Structure formats: C-alpha cells, structure tokens
C-alpha cells in the first residue's frame, strides 16, 4: 500500500549553505550556536516533519582553479561545516519525535566508530537516528585522509557494501534483551546474548561485539543519494530513504520508476524505499511577493560561488572553460546525478557557464515559487504523479526558509490530507511506515557478485 501522505525531510546546513542565502537580509548567521539548530528543530517538529537531514563533506573544496577563494569568499556550500552528529545531539535534546539524519562517509570512516555513533544517537533519542551513507566524491577529501587521489568509484562502493555488512553485524552483536540490569544476581548484561562478530573481509577486520546494546530501531534508518548506476544499485539494495535532485518532473518520474523496479528486483517491497527529491521553494503571500523574493535571492548569488560549488560536486575544474561558453561534455569523477541535472538545464535553456553558475547557486529545485496554495499544488502534482514519496526541503535562506514552509505550506498540505497532523509513532521508522529491523534481516543485501571480493 502506498503511503497515504507524503514525507518531509529538511536539508539543514551546518554552515552558510547556498551561496546567496547567507547574504539575504532575513538570514540569521547562527551556524556556530546550538540554540540556532535547536530553534530549527522545534520549528520542524511543530510542523510534524519526518526528519532533519545534514549533508556533509570532509574538506574545504579547492576544485575551482585550485584555490579556496571561491568557496570561502562567497560563503558557498563547502565553505564551512560543523560535524553533523554533534549538531544532531543538540537538536535531539529539545525534541521528541523529529528524526535526526547525519551524513557519514564509508570511504574515510571505520565501521566500528560509525556503528557506535549511530547506535548511541538512536538510544539517546529513543529511536530517531538516521545515517546518510555516502561514498565521498572529491579529491580534496582524499587529501585529508592520507591519499593523493580518490579510490575509483567501483572500489568506493565495494567498500561501502562491506561497511554496511559490518555495521549490521555490530548492531546485531547484542541480542535484544541482552541488557538485563538485575542487581540481585548480579547480571548487568547477559554474556550469552552478546557475541563477537569475527568479521574478516576485503576491507575490514573487526572482532566486535559493539559496546552499545542493539539500537531501538534495530538499525538506524539508512539514507543514500548515489546517482550513478552503481550508486542506484547500492541505494536500491540498502536504503530506507533515497535523496535525489532533479531538474524536471519527468526526470524525477523516471528515477522513481527505476529505483522502485531495482528495489523489487532485489526482493524488497518497493514501498519500503522512500524517494525524496530535493526542493527549495520560495514562499510569498502573493505570487508577486514570492517572485520578488526569489529575484532578490537570485541577485545575491555570485556566479563564481555557484560555479565553485558545481565544480566540487562534479570534481571537475570548471575554471578552465570560458565563462561565456557552454558547459562542455566532461568526464565526471564526482556526482553524476548533479551532472545530468545541469546538462538538462543547459540544454533546455541555452545557458552559458556564467549563467549556469548563478542558476546552480540559486536554483529552486522543482521551480516552486509562489503562494502556499501554488506551492502545495505543485507538491501535490509531484506526489500524485509517481515522482516521489515526499520531499527534501532546502531553505533558500536559514532559518526563515523553514519557518515560511512550516507555517504556511504545511497547513495547506494538511488541509488537503497530504500530510500528517500528528506523528503516527515514536521512532523515525514508525513515522516513515517502516518496520523495526530484525537481527540478520539485512544480511542477504550484501553484494556477492563483486570482482574485488570474489
Ligand atoms: C542530492 C545529493 C546529495 C548528496 N549529498 C552528499 C553529501 O552530503 N556528502 C557527500 O559526501 N556526498 C553527497 N552526495 C554524493 C553521493 O552520496 C555519492 O557519494 C556521489 O553521488 C557519488 O556517487 P555516484 O557516483 O553513485 O553518484 C550527494 C548526492 C546527491 C545526488
């Protein structure tokens, strides 16, 4: 049964985010304060959002001309990022239902640390943790972790597969009920119910057990955003939630169909994979006010700020191409999904690279600019035409972009019966309509046909 209502996640940035957004007069520059994130968390929970999501990267990108300038000067997406897990802990302390999702890379982290962090967050928040599994895509990140260049894409996904195999084993290493807390016996934890995992694989050797009991959700919710063929296969096997980005309703529908088919081919119920394209709506009391707001935001985007972000997303030095020419065909070591999106934009609108930089930095995914009613109309159209199971909301500026949406668009969605008015459950899995993961339930998801691991 498809979900009767859509799901909403908020893409919060623990830094300035969009290159024009931080310069908008209503933007509040509180990125280094816990209170700032706690206020956003309360806004999202009052509006009954499923979750707050934090993307992450592990470098200040220098892909544009080999310099940090374009990121730092323009306050572009990669200029500054706090560690999302710490930010989430502070948000978890002032909320009781909002899901809390952090991005952690399988390429540079270790499974024991990651399994422990997310199990801890899941306990501390009574089952609200989610992990956005990324494989990382920039050379600048590799250089912060003892390497001159990235691992090839194939290898990154091989490692990610084994990473999830190991974290699963670690979350299962305490059976449910292992923590007895019998003060008389005494029996704090039952040693018969806590098991080493003795994992020896291609990339990891981990004895276990974890030093944290089995998480309330079984496993935290797993989110993924891979867009290459490998990425989509990985997402269809492992993800509860898939985050994507599309330049049109049609490409969102194609992606939706493909992922649901891939999930079914892996023996999964397609309904158990929730696909959330990103949107960045600009809301106004009238269409004219919304349009003026958008134009003001767009004016504040420096073309080089947007191009710099696109350069790091693609991991291609775009400073080598003429600003008044078109984006040429390039090999993309970075995020293929973003490349498809900008190619579609360039071809449809005949953009030069300079224009593309501005458009990419100030893009309004889905094109939702208007009154709450107009935006709700657009979201309803996407939701009912099999383009998505909900949305990942980006704010054109923080925190006002979330407040506008929560206070104006959410009530309109609720009035139409498209969005919940109360949380259905306590845990994030319950609110997403997903069952708690049973021990060993995901073992068969590990890919067994790999050349590297054969
Ligand atoms: C919408 C979207 C958001 C993403 N967010 C992040 C992120 O926060 N951090 C990160 O390292 N990668 C992020 N990625 C990158 C992917 O997770 C993946 O690592 C990258 O796309 C390379 O894999 P691919 O070749 O399968 O696309 C994102 C990708 C997309 C499409």
TrEMBL record:
UniProt KW Hydrolase keyword: no
InterPro entries referenced in this protein's UniProt entry, alphabetically: Diverse_substr_monoxygenases (IPR051260), Luciferase-like_dom (IPR011251), Luciferase-like_sf (IPR036661), NTA_MOA (IPR016215)
Pfam families: Bac_luciferase
Transmembrane segments: none
SUPFAM superfamilies the record matches: Bacterial luciferase-like (SSF51679)
Domain Luciferase-like, residue spans: 27-382
Keyword Flavoprotein tagged: yes
Keywords on record: Flavoprotein, FMN, Monooxygenase, Oxidoreductase
Gene3D superfamilies associated with the record: Luciferase-like domain
Family: Belongs to the NtaA/SnaA/DszA monooxygenase family.
Protein name: LLM class flavin-dependent oxidoreductase
Organism annotation: Nocardia callitridis
């Amino acid at each position: 049964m498809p979900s009767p209502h859509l799901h909403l996640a908020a893409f919060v940035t623990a830094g300035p985010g969009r290159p024009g957004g931080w310069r908008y007069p209503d933007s509040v520059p509180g990125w280094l304060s816990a209170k700032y994130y706690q206020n956003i968390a309360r806004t999202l929970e009052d509006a009954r959002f499923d979750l707050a999501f934090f993307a992450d990267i592990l470098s200040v990108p220098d892909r544009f001309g080999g310099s940090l300038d374009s990121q730092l000067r323009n306050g572009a997406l990669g200029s500054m990022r706090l560690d999302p897990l710490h930010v989430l802990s502070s948000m978890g302390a002032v909320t009781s239902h909002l899901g809390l999702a952090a991005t952690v890379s399988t390429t540079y982290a270790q499974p024991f640390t990651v399994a422990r962090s997310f199990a801890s967050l899941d306990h501390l928040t009574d089952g609200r943790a989610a992990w956005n599994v990324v494989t990382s895509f920039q050379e600048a990140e590799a250089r912060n972790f003892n390497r001159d260049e990235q691992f090839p894409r194939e290898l990154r996904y091989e490692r990610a597969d084994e990473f999830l195999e190991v974290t699963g084993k670690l979350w299962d290493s305490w059976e449910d009920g292992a923590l007895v807390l019998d003060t008389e016996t005494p029996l704090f934890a039952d040693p018969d119910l806590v098991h080493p995992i003795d994992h020896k694989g291609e990339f990891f050797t981990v004895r276990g057990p974890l030093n944290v009991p089995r998480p309330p959700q079984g496993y935290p919710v797993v989110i993924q955003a891979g867009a290459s063929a490998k990425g989509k296969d990985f997402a269809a096997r492992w993800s509860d939630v898939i985050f994507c980005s599309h330049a049109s309703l049609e490409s969102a529908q194609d992606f939706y169909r493909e992922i649901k088919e891939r999930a079914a081919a892996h023996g999964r119920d397609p309904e158990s994979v929730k696909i959330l394209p990103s949107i960045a709506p600009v809301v106004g009391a009238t269409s004219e006010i919304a349009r003026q707001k958008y134009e003001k935001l767009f004016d504040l985007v420096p073309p080089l700020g947007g191009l710099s972000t696109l350069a790091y997303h693609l991991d291609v030095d775009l400073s080598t191409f003429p600003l008044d020419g078109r984006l040429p065909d390039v090999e993309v070591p970075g995020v293929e999904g973003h490349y498809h999106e900008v190619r579609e934009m360039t071809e449809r609108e005949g953009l030069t690279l300079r224009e593309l930089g501005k458009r990419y930095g100030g893009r309004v995914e889905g094109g939702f600019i208007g009154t709450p009613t107009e935006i709700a109309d657009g979201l309803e159209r996407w939701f009912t035409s099999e383009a998505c199971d909900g949305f990942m909301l980006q704010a054109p500026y923080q925190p006002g972009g979330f407040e506008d949406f929560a206070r104006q668009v959410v009530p309109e969605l609720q009035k139409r019966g498209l969005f919940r008015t109360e949380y259905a459950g306590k845990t994030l899995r319950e609110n997403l309509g997903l069952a708690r993961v049973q021990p060993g339930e995901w073992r068969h998801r590990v890919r067994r046909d790999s050349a590297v691991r054969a």
